[in-house]
Amino acid sequence: MGESDVAELITAVIIDDHPAITAGVKAWCAAATPPVELIDADGRIGRAWTEPGASARVVIFDLQLGGPPAFRELERLVDAGRQVIVYSQRSDRDTVLTCLDLGVFTYLTKAEGPDHLIPAIRAAAADLPYTSPSLGGAISTDRRPSRPQLSEREMETLVAWFESDSKRLVAGKLGVSIKTVETYIDRVRIKYANTGRPARTKAALVERAIQDGLIGMEDLTG
Amino acid sequence: MADTMQRMRGRLRIAILIIATADLTALDLPALITHLDVYLVAWPVVAAYLTLIALLATEGVLIVRGRSWGAWRWPALGLTLAISVLVNALIPVAEVPGYANWPIDAIGWIAVILLVDHHLGVLLAVLAAHFATNFVHLALGGELTPLVLINVGTDVVTIGAFQVTAGAATWMCRYAARTAARATEAEAAVRASEAIAARLHEDRRRRSLELEAEVRPLLTGLADGSRDPAADQTRRDCAIAAARMRRLFAGIDDVDDHLLHELKACVDMAERRGVLVDLSTQGSWPGLSLAVRRGLTEAPVRVLSTARNWARVTVLGTDSGVSVSVVADGDAAGIPARADGAVMITTVEDEDRLWVKATWQS
């Protein structure tokens, strides 16, 4: 991903009702280079709408704040153009795909640690796609008729990414470069951004991908 | 379930057979014998009677063997209606309202027997055709006088009423049996799901208690300072306990699934050895045979058992099949390329990491 895009200090706000998670994420953000500034919303969604949370570039959102999945609140954040990373203990396909369709930036499960969360925050700030292995797994088992058409190679890559959690292992298995692996995974993410419910965040992702030549218009319309 | 229906149908058939046999032997046989001189030709009428008795005997055998007429019911029904026409043709038209016309009730009972599993409408149509034969006979013979019409009409109404009632009763019993069978089935399904839920609940409770037994000393140790949060071992133990708790909360095990159950047991074992295991599942898979499950788990479990510090286990169910994959800092020795149940094994090694995947194509 382009280093120049993320030179400025990124601020993220975390909405999670478990203090231990918040403390852990705070420690990861502080240890990152360059560090990420983290605002603790203390489990309250309202704090993402008021300063300092309102101007945070990225929202880290625990889907379940002591109740059923907060899809409505998530939708409102996305509609306001916020880059939302869902960070949840849920890993079931329907929940993941629903979030994706609502227009979240990416979906991580709590089993996915700083190795995924920090790069995801940076990618979100730069409008670059980020697909976690768990998101890859959910997409690879998507059976909805509205799903975008994926090539066989894209599907293989996605499955291998879910299974191995290592782009190097995927590259080794499929006999391609790590860069190619990343391209396949990102193209799938863009295809998903280009389907379903329209959202500003999705459009930004697609626009950036086309600018960077990651995907052509013909791949999205075909 | 289907048993209830089977039993009820069997008893209904016996009841109708008894009625029909009583009718043919106690009423129709004396009528036939005392009117042998009336028929234009007697022997075909006797043969017709014996044929109907033969049909009754067949029904008796079928009931004993617990079988139905199947496709044979239609030729048998055709034969019965043919007898209706034949005997009518051999009775002088003046005798149609009298005892010589014994088939006027006998035919209907045979029809009730043959159509016991069928819609009431079919029986009504057959009875109508049979009774119509009598009226046609009267009309052709120019005997359609009011008195005769009343005589035969009374016969038709009384006989028909019995037979239609019997047919309707079988139909209603069948309906009741079907409803009862459905209710029994629904009840069994509810009971089964309750049993599964209770078992899962019990399982969760047990695991939660086990987990508590593991987590409590860890937390107490951290609180009273006997365990150092900076120590690698403490961090490891905490990470493993956290992974187990996450799995418990995520409800991955809430599915009554043998494959996952078996894998979970192996993951548990690895965790007890101090290996940090990340278990992820995605998609769904059908109930798999023992051979396929063994094939899918054998190689991954072997890797899991050689993992030194960490392992990632994934189960993926797609339209084309199921795969179990393990990435770990383990040992590749002795991993075969094929396993039980036509399962394919692929192995990728990369420095200190080993990736073994077992795939079963459905």
Break the fold down into its secondary structure elements and pairings.
The complex is a heterodimer of chains A (222) and B (362).
Chain A: E1 11-15, H1 19-31, E2 37-40, E3 58-61, H2 71-79, E4 83-88, H3 93-102, E5 106-109, H4 114-125, H5 133-140, H6 152-164, H7 167-174, H8 178-193, H9 200-211, H10 217-221
Chain B: H1 2-34, H2 43-65, H3 73-90, H4 103-114, H5 120-140, H6 146-224, H7 232-250, H8 258-272, E1 276-283, H9 290-306, E2 310-318, E3 321-328, E4 338-339, E5 343-350, E6 353-361
Helix pairs in contact in B: 1-2, 1-4, 1-6, 2-3, 2-4, 3-4, 3-5, 4-5, 4-6, 5-6, 6-7, 8-9
The helix-strand sequence of chain B is HHHHHHHHEHEEEEE
Q: Number of DSSP helices of chain B? A: 9
How far the N terminus sits from the C terminus of chain B, by CA atoms, comes to 32 Å
Give the % helix of chain A: 40-55%
What is the tally of helical segments of chain A? 10
Largest protein-protein interface: A-B, 24 and 26 residues
Structure described in brief:
The complex is a heterodimer of chains A (222) and B (362). Chain A is of the alpha/beta class and 222 residues long.
